[in-house]
Design brief:
mainly alpha, 12 helices, about 0% strand
Length: about 230
């Protein structure tokens, strides 16, 4: 929570103040305590890196809602990492495409500045028309800022080309790390909870993450585990 990140303790009275409904606030406070307890038991970086023992008696000993909270925490960590990997891949692709469009230009630097200005103008038109999704706007603004910084004060495209190569390598590293972390998470959930409801929930929720699809298709464990919990 942002409140906790500021160094404040999230107490029960806080939920009542914001939610303005006694029963809902009490339920939310109870879940938050459960969430915090699971967060302390769940060593997410170690789990994702495969450095932790899958035998987790503390987690198995929790009530079902506690075990479910642990699964949700792991899913959230994966969702965040997969979204970051996608964003890096999109930036890399945009930079490569942008440079490719300049290959036959006689003055590549001037053309780069012109193309960037046109791209920003097109984005503004879409925004003024109300057809520019917030995520796309954020992505385009990040791209434009990156390109503008690489072109500023330059007499050529060497800095931009270097940034494109760095971005490509970063995207590849992020994708490889995400694939490994996904496999480690699958191993952990199966090893900790067995082929029960926790694994089923984990697998079905993974299927609902759009960013996970490319990784699930290549996963060595996902399909076999799904068959294990959902036999034909």
């Amino acid at each position: 929570m942002s409140y906790e990140q500021l160094g404040f303790q999230a107490e029960d009275v806080l939920f009542g103040e914001f939610l303005q409904h006694e029963e809902i606030a009490a339920s939310f406070a109870a879940y938050h305590k459960l969430f915090c307890a699971c967060r302390e038991k769940l060593a997410l970086p170690q789990i994702l890196s495969g450095q932790t023992d899958t035998a987790a008696p503390e987690l198995r000993a929790l009530r079902f809602d506690g075990r479910l909270a642990a699964v949700e925490l792991l899913l959230h960590a994966l969702k965040t990492e997969l979204a970051q990997a996608r964003a890096q891949s999109e930036l890399s692709g945009s930079l490569a495409s942008f440079l490719s469009a300049l290959e036959r230009e006689p003055d590549r630097l001037s053309a780069a500045r012109t193309h960037l200005a046109r791209r920003e103008s097109a984005m503004q038109v879409k925004k003024d028309c109300g057809v520019l999704p917030a995520e796309e706007e954020a992505r385009e603004r990040r791209f434009a800022a990156k390109v503008r910084a690489c072109l500023e004060g330059e007499s050529g495209l060497a800095v931009l080309e270097s940034e494109a190569e760095r971005s490509r390598a970063a995207a590849q590293t992020a994708a490889e790390a995400s694939a490994v972390h996904l496999e480690n998470a699958l191993t952990f959930v199966r090893g900790t909870f067995g082929p029960g409801q926790e694994l089923l929930i984990f697998l079905t929720q993974l299927q609902n993450l759009p960013d996970a699809q490319p990784f699930l298709r290549k996963s060595a464990q996902f399909a076999p585990l799904l068959r294990e919990v959902l036999p034909e």
